[in-house]
Each structure stands twice: as C-alpha cells, then as structure tokens.
Design a protein that fits this description.
single chain, 6-stranded mixed beta sheet, binds iron/sulfur cluster
Length: 365
C-alpha cells in the first residue's frame, strides 16, 4: 500500500538504525510529542534498534491523557442530567474523573453516546429537539477545526440544543511549558506531524531559538520516526537547533490556511489546564463570545469543588518525560487498561497503555 508499506520496510529501518548508531557519540534524550508516535515506537519495538545512548521520552501529545480532571468531572455532571444526550469519542468514556467515569453514568441510565464526528452530534440534535446534545470536544489543533465547523453549522441550522464542552489544547505552548520545568530532561523533540499538517511549522522556529533545541516535524510510521530521530541526533551532535520537516509528504511550511481561518473565526486562545501538567498559559481554545450560546461551560451550571486525582498515579511526571511506567508501583497491578487509575492508561496512545499493550515488561521491571 503506497505511503504505508514503504514506511514499514525492515531493511530501511535497519539502515536508519545503523545511521543513528554511527551519528551518535554521546547520550541524548529525545521526546516524541505525540501519543500516536509513542504507540508506533512501542508497537514496532524501536527502542531495541537504537543505541544505548539514545533515550526516548514520551510526551504529552495524547489528548485523552491531558484533558483536565476538572473537565472530566464537569462532563460527568452534565451527562448525568436527564434532558442531556452526551456525545463523545469512545476513549473518553473510560477516563477516570474524581468519582467514576462516563461509563458509570451510562450504566446508571444516562444517555451517553459514542460518536465518530462532531457532525454526528448535529444530526442527533436535529432529531432530538427536546433534548440538549453536548459534544465533548477534546484534542489538539488537528481535531479543533472540525469542532469549529460543527458549531458554525449549528448556528447556520439555527440549532439551539447543541453545545460543545471544550478542552482543546495546542502544542507549541506545552513544548514551552516542558522546557520551563526545572527538572526537564528533553534535549530535542520529534514534532507532531498531524498538528503541523494543519498549523504548518513556523510556530516551532521561535521555540528552537529560545530553548536551543532541535525540533523535527515527524510522521507516524516506523521509518518516519527513525528518520526523525536521525535528524534530531545529527543536529544535537552538530550543536544545531532548528526546525526540520521529516513529514514533507503531509506538512507544508504554512499548513492548512482554511482550517486555520475557521479556528480563528470560532475560537479564542485561552489558558488551559492540562492533566498532570497544570495550567499552561495560552495553550487552549475556547469558543468566542459570538458562540457563547453553544458553550456548555457557560450554559450548564456545574460544581467544580470535587477535583481529586488518584494519589498513586504518576502520569504527570510521565507526561513531563521525567518518569516512565516502570517507576509506577501500580503499573499492571492495580492499574490496567481495563481498570485504569490514570489517564495515560486509558487511551491506546497513552504511554502506560502502550507499554502495557506491547508487553514492554523489559522496560518496566
Ligand atoms: S500505570 Fe496507571 S497509575 Fe501508574 S502512572 Fe500509569 S496511569 Fe498512572
């Protein structure tokens, strides 16, 4: 299959691994930003191909993992209302809030539905005018344009029973946040290819200059990731810090202008709470005042006093790249994908779930 098979070619992977080995003269720590990249790294056993000097750190680019606990608690409260149809992508139903998850609401009789697109929710809203239909709008710059489009459509269709509960996050501010943590270990980044296909890569120039780090915009197949690592290592060894684009088959310098325009039209940039990382300035999107009627946070009166994270979970440190699942005593014991204690065990893109799923017990014990 074109654009897939050639990026999973074993000979090419071994060749790249050899080039990485030859290029590496000292230890380097490289973070992949995106959960999809973490998934590929674990699925294809890429750490086994790398020299011991290269350590991969797993970053905060899984939207399910970083959605704030307070927002999950709000989602649970709203979904429990009798006149609400609550719609979400499937992974979010198992994310633990302070007291249970959205599956618990569904089990107790709440109308909680899994959808594949925000546009599905518009149809549900049109067919259920006596109900309030709420979509849990999470994700990075990749999913935000479709959610913005759904709100625009709702306005055009004069739907007054459709709402977004928004928790959109953006990548450049979290890279900045990670580099500002005094304990940060990151020396270079594999940038998120899908986000850059929407936003372009010029935003990352400033980060490279400010923090003196290389950022290589990278795709999601094993060959993409090995090429991305090679490019980061070559820059680190040469003392360089600039943006490179490994994922040129999908990413252009300026990205998708139409998608950016709709983001600007519907959303304002806001400070955002990241699960495990805290409040990061200007790292999220909220609906503009013109769309306040569609904003579930404004329309629904929720109580946010109940926020309480599991005392055992160290997923915040895992998302910062300073700890790994092997450092968590609950990994594979009290915490499994069936019974997750923390968000990084819920989504298949979460680091703990990826380690568990691909049986990287050698990296755990
Ligand atoms: S294994 Fe579970 S409890 Fe431990 S850090 Fe990961 S999500 Fe949290």
């Amino acid at each position: 299959m074109r654009f897939v098979d050639e990026f999973r070619d074993e000979k090419q992977a071994l060749l790249l691994a050899d080039q990485i080995r030859k290029a590496t003269t000292q230890p380097w720590r490289i973070m992949e930003v995106c959960g999809g990249q973490t998934h590929t790294i674990m699925q294809y056993g890429l750490p086994d191909l790398l020299p011991n000097e290269i350590e991969l750190l797993h970053g905060p680019g899984c939207p399910v993992c970083v959605t704030g606990l307070e927002l999950i608690d709000k989602a649970i409260q709203i979904a429990s209302l009798r006149d609400v149809i609550f719609c979400s992508y499937g992974d979010m139903l198992r994310v633990p809030g302070s007291k249970g998850d959205l599956f618990d609401v569904k089990a107790a009789g709440g109308d909680v539905r899994i959808v594949y697109s925000p546009l599905d929710c518009l149809k549900i809203a049109r067919e259920n005018r006596g109900k309030r239909v709420v979509f849990l709008a999470i994700g990075f710059e990749t999913t935000a344009p479709a959610n913005a489009m759904a709100v625009k459509q709702a306005k055009k269709m004069k739907l007054d029973n459709f709402f977004l509960l928004c928790s959109h996050v953006t990548v450049p501010p979290v890279i900045s946040g990670l580099m500002e943590f005094p304990e940060t270990l990151v020396q270079g980044f594999l940038g998120p290819g899908h986000v850059c296909s929407v936003m372009g890569w010029t935003q990352y120039d400033e980060l490279c200059q400010k923090y003196k780090i290389p950022i290589v915009v990278t795709g999601f197949e094993p060959i993409d990731i090995l090429e991305g690592i090679l490019k980061v290592v070559r820059q680190l060894e040469a003392g360089e810090s600039r943006v490179e684009n490994q994922y040129s088959r999908a990413v252009t310098r300026d990205g998708n202008k139409e998608a950016q325009a709709i983001l600007d039209e519907v959303f304002d940039v806001c400070d955002q709470e990241w699960r495990g990382l805290g409040l990061i300035p200007k790292s999220g999107y909220k609906l503009k005042i013109d769309y306040a009627n569609y904003d579930a946070e404004i329309v629904f009166d929720t109580d946010s006093d109940s926020v309480c994270e599991s005392g055992v979970c160290i997923s915040g440190d895992i998302l910062k790249g300073i700890k790994k699942p092997k450092d968590c005593p609950a990994f594979g014991k009290q915490c499994t994908p069936e019974q997750p204690l923390g968000a990084t065990m819920v989504s298949s893109e979460g680091t703990c779930a990826a380690y568990f799923r691909y049986g990287r017990l050698d990296l755990v014990v």
